[in-house]
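[Protein data]
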Amino acid sequence: MTVNQKIFTDLLATNPSAIIELFTLQLSTALHGNNTTYRFHSGSNLNSNGEIVWQGNSYTRLPIEVTGFAFRKGQLPRPKAIISNKNGFISAILLDVNNTTTGSDLTAAVLTRITTQAKFLDAANFVGSSNSDADPNAEYPRETYSIDRKAAENREVVEFELAAPTDLAGVRIPKRQCTRTLFPSIGTFA
């Protein structure tokens, strides 16, 4: 049974496993001064520290709400991420990043949404560290977005507007301009 079949079979069950959303925030050395990856989730777990282990990586509990993943006809999604600024955690990251590149505010940092189901999580998440259904490959397709801009920041939350990597200002596809000299069929009609 393939990974996708496992996920869809469980979703069609009478009592499917809970869907788990995990997030990674990847910084860039060139823009942010380091290439740190922050891993977090918005839910809770059975263990006392609230961490979820997926593919051997620990994801810290940090309230986050990301909305706007829907694809509309002819338009790429532009999700918004609202992240808790508990104990000034996000503000501290912003302060560190802005020391490297003034006014950066995590622009162009990559936020990845990883979705799986609770039954497929690593065995470390379960009592007795055993889970016969653990499968590190059982996940939905990952959704990757770049931070386009910081929309708001206060003591409670920081809000970011996200964009698909190809939907950022100054990004063209293809990266190379197509001209008639390079591609003779451009501009000709039958």
Q: What stands out?
A: Strands lie at 19-26, 37-41, 52-54, 57-61, 64-67, 80-84, 110-117, 143-153, 157-163. The two ends are 48 Å apart (CA to CA).
